[in-house]
Amino acid sequence: MLRRNLRHARRYPAMTISLVSMPIAMLLLFNYVFGGTMSAGMGGQGSGDYIKYLVPGILLMAVGSGVLPTTVGVCTDMTEGIVTRFRTMPINGSSILTGRAVGAVIQTLLSIVLVMGVAFLAGFRSGAEPVEWLAAAGLLALMCTALTWLAVALGQLVKAPEAASSVALPFSFLLPFLSSAFVPLDSMPDWLRHFAEWQPYTAFIETLRGLLLGDEIGRYGPLAVGWGVLIAVGGFVWARSLFRRDATR
To answer: DSSP letter string over the chain?
Structure first.
């Protein structure tokens, strides 16, 4: 099942390209177009200061972008009948979902590497030690796993690929903007700041920012790990439940 999904990604690269193109476009846009103004508003000296603040949020946007192709892919499999055919074969039913999830995590992690490479070319420099880089990689892997299993569940919940893309939009685009990805929390109005402070994306971003820049993480570290484990386990259980329920119909 993993090999099948990786072959699909190679034969139909449009979704894979979207994983990389949107985060890179946002990185270049905010750094080169808005970077000077944003940095001045945050007390920096130029876009070179702002890119240090920007990159962790862009990396999380790259993780969130993986929700869209995974949701659409799972929905397509469920609605076009291939999963029904798989269920008639002597294979473990859970491998259908697991193969999709593992394949999506691999693609998303590769896209993060590409985005990180563009960030370095754009002037990002990290003050992290090797152990902090390792912790950052582990956090990104946890985020990928968590959001991928959530996407697998959402793909089974909707009944059309068009609806699947709409359902995935908040995770790939909306929530990153309603977080500390692009501006500090204290620059937001109170009603929005309270939401942004406690939603999962802000905890992930602030933890990742602290690790990549060699700064303090504070309470966001345990909060990010807790959110990641909760979403991963919840998404996995939800996906398995929907898959079994569909098999009994």
So the answer is: -HHHHHHHHHH-THHHHHHHHHHHHHHHIIIIISHHHHHHHTT-SSHHHHHHHHHHHHHHHHHHHTHHHHHHHHHHHHHHSHHHHHHTSSS-THHHHHHHHHHHHHHHHHHHHHHHHHHHHTT------HHHHHHHHHHHHHHHHHHHHHHHHHHHHSSSHHHHHHHHHIIIIIHHHTTTSSS-GGGS-HHHHHHHHHSHHHHHHHHHHHHHHT---TTHHHHHHHHHHHHHHHHHHHHHHHHHHHHT-
Cβ atoms within 10 A of the Cβ of 4, count?
15
CA distance 249 to 167: 24
What contacts 112, CB < 8 A, 6 or more positions away?
A: 59, 62, 63, 140, 144
Rounded distance, CA 18 to CA 9, Å? 12
Instruction: State pLDDT tens for residues 127-172.
Output: 889 999 999 999 999 999 999 999 999 988 888 877 887 888 888 8
Q: Which residues of 155-165 are buried (b: 16+ CB within 10 A; e: fewer)?
A: bbbbeebeebb
From CA 167, how far away is CA 76, in angstroms rounded?
A: 14
What is the pTM assigned to this prediction? 0.88
Residue 221 neighbours by CB under 8 Å, 6+ apart: 207, 210
